[in-house]
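If it is no trouble, can you show me the amino acids of a protein and the tokens describing how it folds?
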Amino acid sequence: MSPRAFCLRSANSLERHKDRFFLLVAFALCGIAVPVRGDEFCATRVAFEGGKTSEKLPGVTRSGPGIFVSVRLDGKDDNLRFLFDTGAGRTVIERNVAARLGLRPTAKSSIGGVGAGRVDVDVVKGASLRLGKVRLNGVDLHVADIPEFEHVDGIIGYDLLCSTVVIFDSKEPSIVVTTPSTFQYQGSGDVLPLQIRGRWPFVRGTLKVPGVDPVTDDFLVDTGSNDDVNHPIIRQSKGQLRETSTGSGGFGKSLSGVIGPNEWFRIGSTTIPATTSVCCAASEEVSRQLGAGILSRFRITFNYPQGKMILAKYSDR
């Protein structure tokens, strides 16, 4: 997948949730555009109603491990159900929904996933979205066909994250959005460097698979995936592996891969015992991935503007 596109879910999610939403797409008054640390400029402008600087989004729901937010397009009354997905570098709206709302694309582009190849899409430039009392201006909507395995109207990630601080609680579930200039963290969680590359967030971690020395690498933080921790090193494992297909059920063609147990994964001060790892996707970036199987253990603060991610274990709260 291109660093400028969003990703699909990978094999572990597909095997465990064949009848669930991971087959959808294994894929954000005043305000200013702000830069984020990395190779992308954030064109999204955020505004809070009533002069506030922080807002807990209404209508946040969970279905399985997936977290959904309620979104309205400016001038429209429809409450739309968008998947919140840090692996979504572009905001996506389902083609039938876009047609129903009378949206008129003015550009064309393409998107890819963990599967091979790309898919052509239409683009609605510069839309305004409302998430409760938070307004996002300057959002490009990528119009795509999303398989109807579970009702979803769209997907949002980078366009919400790039200009704000987002506190993500998958257990409650809740999402709190704060202006970066007013945010202060006073908890005891791990404050980790976060790299933004091609609209994707990456964090450092260490993975151990059977019979191989631990490997430290940058992992894509992907809340939209139900996987645990994926890395090409699993191919070298001396443990039991089985063949699988990656990238099926969404954009791009399926690829052959392997799936098997790891021994442990360490992120910050936390070492997580044996889970499952998969290899490999269509690009190096999405073959090194943290999914909800790991991320759901933490209350996570995403601070893209300052290049930080804060992990607070639920057991410490």
User: Anything to note?
Assistant: The mean pLDDT is 85. The chain has four helices and 27 strands.
